[in-house]
């Protein structure tokens, strides 16, 4: 019987911890949002992940960001090269 009370005490401590840190409120609000959803999603877990912020970016967003990154890297390389050329010009004019 003492073992049962000890584990019950640990459960209660854990519950208070979750409540204090706002986890229970957050999970409750997400579940309420799912409950109030008129068109229930096919995948409830994805809905919960999305509303908790655990879902990553959409694949289309990732591809767009990759393309933008590649474009910006190319522009950066061109600007670095231009900067190098301009520095060389300034050096050559300093000695004239």
Care to count the β-strands? 0
Number of helices: 4
| Distance from first to last alpha carbon | 96 Å
The biggest sheet amounts to:
none
Structure description:
It is a single chain. This protein is an all-alpha fold. It contains four helices and no strands. The chain has helices at residues 2-20, 23-36, 44-52, 59-94.
Give the gist of this structure.
The chain has 96 residues and is mostly helical.
Topology record:
Elements: H1 2-20, H2 23-36, H3 44-52, H4 59-94
Helix pairs in contact: 2-3
Which tags fit this structure?
96 residues; mainly alpha; 4 helices; elongated
